[in-house]
Design a protein that fits this description.
The chain has one domain. Strand 1 and strand 2 form a beta hairpin. It has about 180 residues and is an all-alpha fold. The chain has 10 helices and 2 strands. Helix 1 packs antiparallel against helix 2, helix 1 runs antiparallel to helix 6 and helix 5 runs antiparallel to helix 6.
Length: about 180
């Protein structure tokens, strides 16, 4: 899902949480889990991919064009959510429960909308152990999936996100669909 899509769904979910429960900590947790979970992309960008261009447009384009070399994404993992659920259960903290709900919403939306960009098992991708077993190599985890050109302009790219390029039938100039397995 595009960053803009996550922002919109998170704002909606946070608003629903606030209106339905009147709990500011719960709503704040939903917002943190739904959108701020993507801070791990920033950590990967700087720490593991050694990128130094800190302009938001450069960061966004790096990801949308599929140039990622290392995919650690510590916050996008079943293992972390298992620990967070246990901690939330033990403490009963509304903000932590909100984070869990928002973060799981984020992961499900990623699986639905970004699954076509992951040629291997999209469900396994969200396991930290799976990524570690593949040494966090972007080329191995993402494979080579042709992507449509990233839209010009930050905000358009922010709301459009990465899109898989449809294969074209060279002879007819039409999109072709791959054969069913």
């Amino acid at each position: 899902m595009s960053p803009g899509g996550h922002a919109a769904t998170t704002a909606l979910a946070g608003g629903v949480a606030l209106l339905s429960t009147s709990s500011v900590p719960l709503a704040a947790g939903v917002v943190a889990g739904g959108f701020l979970i993507d801070l791990d992309h920033a950590a990967d960008y700087v720490l593991f991919n050694r990128q130094r261009d800190l302009r938001p447009s450069a960061f966004l384009r790096y990801y949308l064009e599929g140039r990622v070399e290392r995919v650690v994404l510590a916050l996008h993992s079943y293992e972390l959510f298992t620990l967070l659920i246990a901690l939330a259960w033990w403490t009963g903290a509304a903000a932590l429960w909100g984070y869990v709900v928002g973060g799981l919403m984020h992961l499900v939306l990623d699986m639905i909308f970004n699954g076509e960009l992951l040629p291997n098992n999209v469900l396994a991708f969200y396991s930290f152990a799976y990524r570690a077993a593949h040494r966090f190599r972007g080329a191995t985890l993402h494979g080579h999936v042709p992507r449509a050109p990233v839209p010009a302009g930050f905000w358009r790219a922010f709301f459009t996100g990465a899109v898989r390029r449809e294969p074209r039938d060279a002879a007819a100039g039409r999109r072709s669909t791959p054969p069913a397995a």
